[in-house]
TrEMBL record:
This is Serine/threonine-protein kinase VRK2. Residues 34-324 form the Protein kinase domain. It is a single-pass type IV membrane protein. It comes from Camelus bactrianus (Bactrian camel). It is an enzyme of class 2 (transferase). Keywords: ATP-binding, Cytoplasm, Endoplasmic reticulum, Kinase, Membrane, Mitochondrion, Nucleotide-binding, Nucleus, Phosphoprotein, Serine/threonine-protein kinase, Transferase, Transmembrane, Transmembrane helix. The chain crosses the membrane at residues 486-506. GO terms for molecular function: ATP binding; protein serine/threonine kinase activity. It is found in: Cytoplasm; Endoplasmic reticulum membrane; Mitochondrion membrane; Nucleus envelope.
Amino acid sequence: MPAEVMPPRKNEKYKLPVPLPEGQVLDDTEGKQWILGKMIGSGGFGLIYLAFPTNKPDKDARHVIKVEYQENGPLFSELKFYQRAAKKDSIKKWIALKQLDYLGIPLFYGSGITEFKGRSYRFMVMERLGIDLQKISDQNGTFKKSTVLQLGIRMLDVLEYIHENEYVHGDIKAANLLLGYRNPDRVYLADYGLSYRYCPSGNHKQYQENPRKGHNGTIEFTSLDAHKGVALSRRSDLEILGYCLLRWLCGKLPWERNLKDPVAVQTAKTNLLDELPESVLKWAPSGSSEIAQYLLCARDLAYDEKPNYQMLRKILNPDGMPLGPLEFSTKEESLNMPAPNNPKVDSRKATTKQVNQMQNRLIGKQGPSERSAESCAARRRVQGEEEPSGLPSRDPPQESTRRRQKYCESQECLNAVKNSPQISSCVQLPNSFYEPHQYFTSPDMFSKSRSPSWYTDASTTDMEVTELESSTGLWHTLSEETKSDVYYYGITIVFLFILVCLALYFL
């Protein structure tokens, strides 16, 4: 069969196709015939139908067919991903190699072109899946901590596979995560219409910013590289997943009020990553230590660096507990954010142990100034021994690197979380728009840290500032950088006061 040509890119938006009639028979490129069932949904560019093979009709359809006009691009991109990187045999071999119980990539059964009313349609036959996580999130608001961490581990399994096959997904979000149709304990990453081949034939794309292509993807989750118009790489997928984990745990992200201003969203994400782990711990202090550490390692990756997926999985599951069935709680249950299920372990002790492990890995014996060079030293040592097959090792390209900052109050924040009661920081409002609200049993829990620039809560009053200044022994707990800031601003205020007095005297 001759190679299919990529449809031309057009400036106008892709149009939804005119629906095909139920019962129409479609012939795929391998000679299999499929009967269209009823239409069950539509995406941004195409329609989705139930489908049956003509030789095995079944009332309970196990397949779906995605349909678009032939000139549309997203289904073509998704089709090429499956043909190059996600054949059934390749997935089975990977599952056996990695000793997985399953891999959350929907199975691909065939594709073809059909005609209807003078228009050409491209179609793709896929495994039927169940409900997407966005619908569950809309109903429940947040997910249990154990569920969030398990979702992260399952997505890391998928990302490791597609990254090893030279692709990135680029649009990880709850709407693209679907539960299994016959096995709802399994979760699948679907919709590869925005997938991108970051390393064709083993040659990694070079880092190059292009403002004209900036802010691509789903704005609340897309990576900083995408905001800058840089071609997506493996670190982009990991960063996007980190934002999703934080959203599922807390019900909201710090920049969700500014989604109409992509530059403001980019700035808020930059500030959150620069101020890790304090930024995440302050936004969702209970149960967020794993996500804070995960984002640290994702942030510190070079543009073309291979992630240590096993280490990232260990961050999300530090005790190595076996993965159980996915549990999606009601709104009331989700407020507690319990630790992973283990009847023999007290939830508070388990959380404390995880925080201790994070603290040891992040700080250990190194000083605060050494963090930027050694926070993920273990990851880089492993990568030195383990190069991906087919991907040559090379020095990182010159890039506009993300700003690195010292931890300063990292240990202080972690100790505060460890010693506080395990209470969720996310209070859900009666409507579907969840506004995280900070409340602590210990009122000084985070008063020692500077408020991150992305966190604009105006609840700090003059009375609270006075109490902070009068706290005994506070000065000795501050880092040298914070002390120098106090000296600097104090001298500046005194100098300005003297200038004002002199001006008033001579006037």
